[in-house]
């Protein structure tokens, strides 16, 4: 799967998990400063990635990602 | 009869099914056996049945006390998956769940989510992080609850509060620096925990260095905001503050400092700390100077009762925590 394809799917999933509009999100959106979500949202996101992209991420690895772009890179590495 | 003896008696009257995903661990198996043999719980061991059976025999236990679940047996596993994905608000789909259920801890939690067991008890081979993460992913948080947290039950010699020598306090172990919303969740969960475990009518004080505006500052603002959120979310519960600790538990101090009606001031049986710095120091003070026994931490906020025990705990403490978890599960049904 191409990076752009993964990115667009991840943006949709982030929008859903963090209850944001997908148009507000990009590769450089920061989980900490822009989304300020609790771990509950990250759990939802990791579950969704596992369901839809069939990639099992460690929650600790996903939580260590600064931006949505970092998360996409992590998914690429795991694929 | 001490509070812990009362809890043991209560467990016997309505034994619950407790899943042990670390079945082969020597301490865990012994604790499960003692709790099962004495009629406090029905222990369910999860893993490889041949290995478990052999170990039970080697250790000289009566195998009839245990139910053993074969983690590799496909028919039951599929029935679990089918029932799990049919539940509302579950996160994982079939393929992801199937993969995760190769792990005994997550298998146990799926059994719990569908109601085949009442408690998941782990924490010796699995880390606290493993237990909390699996719990969030598979069991999930209660509706409206923003964080996992914990409370402890202190039995303080010489303290004569509204529940005698007992006082529930939280969170002294899990949620480091809660925001107002999370602090409200801790208070709400704590009320539900003491109700299910001890049948108390909870009177929950959110404490600070100020009583109802006697001081000012952002540390206090967080606590007052949390009280407001908690009252909006759960108007059925008596949650009040901000109070100083003495105004929360001493009727004489409350009479002086709290100039409005309060169902909590002076007679709180649950104390919620503003953050983990306070919580940890406070529990150490109660233990060191008050010579109190502290039971817990009891995890709360999950949809069902999960217990993460302490790795260094002796078997007697494990049995106590197993029984406490079982009584909580029975009380929250």
Automatic annotation (TrEMBL), chain A:
Give the source species: Floccifex porci
Q: Which residues form a coiled coil?
A: none
The UniProt record lists the Carrier domain at: 1-79
Protein's UniProt name: Acyl carrier protein
From TrEMBL, chain B:
Query: What's a single GO MF annotation on this record?
Result: phosphate acetyltransferase activity
Q: Residue limits of the Phosphate acetyl/butaryl transferase domain? A: 3-326
Which Pfam families does this entry report, sorted A to Z?
Answer: PTA_PTB
Matches recorded under InterPro entries: P_Ac_Bu_trans (IPR012147), P_AcTrfase_dom1 (IPR042113), P_AcTrfase_dom2 (IPR042112), Phos_Acetyltrans/Butyryltrans (IPR050500), PTA_PTB (IPR002505)
- Enzymatic reactions: acetyl-CoA + phosphate = acetyl phosphate + CoA
Keyword Transferase listed? The answer is yes
Which Gene3D superfamilies does this one have? Answer: 3.40.50.10950, Isocitrate/Isopropylmalate dehydrogenase-like
Source domain of life = Bacteria
Which stretches are transmembrane? none
| Keywords, sorted A to Z | Acyltransferase, Transferase
- Write out the similarity annotation: Belongs to the phosphate acetyltransferase and butyryltransferase family.
Q: Would you tell me the protein name for this molecule? A: Phosphate acetyltransferase
Q: Look up and give the organism this protein is from.
A: Floccifex porci
């Amino acid at each position: 799967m191409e990076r752009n394809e993964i990115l667009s799917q991840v943006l949709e999933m982030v929008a859903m998990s963090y209850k944001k509009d997908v148009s507000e999100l990009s590769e450089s959106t920061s989980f900490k400063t822009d989304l300020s979500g609790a771990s509950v949202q990250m759990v939802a996101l990791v579950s969704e990635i596992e369901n839809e992209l069939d990639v099992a991420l460690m929650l600790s690895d996903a939580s260590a990602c600064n931006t949505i772009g970092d998360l996409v890179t992590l998914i690429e590495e795991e694929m | 009869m001490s509070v812990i003896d009362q809890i043991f008696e209560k467990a016997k009257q309505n034994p619950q099914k407790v899943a042990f995903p670390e079945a082969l661990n020597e301490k865990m198996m012994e604790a499960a056996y003692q709790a099962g043999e004495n009629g406090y719980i029905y222990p369910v061991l999860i893993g490889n049945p041949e290995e478990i059976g052999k170990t039970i025999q080697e250790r000289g236990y009566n195998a009839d006390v245990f139910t053993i679940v074969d983690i590799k047996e496909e028919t039951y596993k599929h029935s679990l998956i089918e029932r799990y994905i049919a539940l509302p608000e579950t996160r994982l789909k079939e393929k992801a769940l199937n993969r995760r259920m190769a792990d005994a801890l997550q298998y146990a939690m799926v059994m719990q989510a569908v109601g085949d067991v009442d408690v998941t008890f782990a924490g010796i081979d699995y880390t606290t992080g493993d237990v909390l993460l699996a719990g969030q992913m598979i069991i999930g948080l209660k509706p409206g609850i923003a964080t996992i947290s914990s409370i402890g039950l202190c039995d303080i010699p010489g303290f004569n509060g509204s529940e005698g020598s007992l006082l529930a306090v939280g969170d002294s172990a899990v949620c480091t620096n809660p925001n107002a919303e999370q602090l409200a969740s801790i208070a709400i969960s704590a009320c539900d925990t003491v109700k299910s475990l001890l049948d108390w009518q909870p009177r929950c004080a959110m404490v600070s260095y100020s009583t109802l505006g006697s001081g000012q500052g952002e540390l206090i603002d967080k606590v007052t905001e949390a009280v407001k959120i908690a009252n909006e979310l759960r108007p059925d519960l008596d949650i009040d503050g901000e109070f100083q600790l003495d105004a929360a538990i001493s009727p004489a101090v409350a009479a002086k400092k709290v100039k409005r009606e309060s169902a909590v001031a002076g007679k709180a049986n649950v104390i919620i700390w503003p953050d983990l710095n306070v919580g940890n120091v406070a529990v150490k003070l109660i233990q060191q100077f008050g010579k109190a026994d502290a039971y817990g931490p009891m995890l709360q906020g999950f949809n069902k009762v999960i217990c993460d025990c302490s790795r260094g705990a002796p078997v007697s403490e494990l049995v106590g925590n197993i029984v406490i978890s079982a009584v909580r599960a029975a009380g929250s049904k």
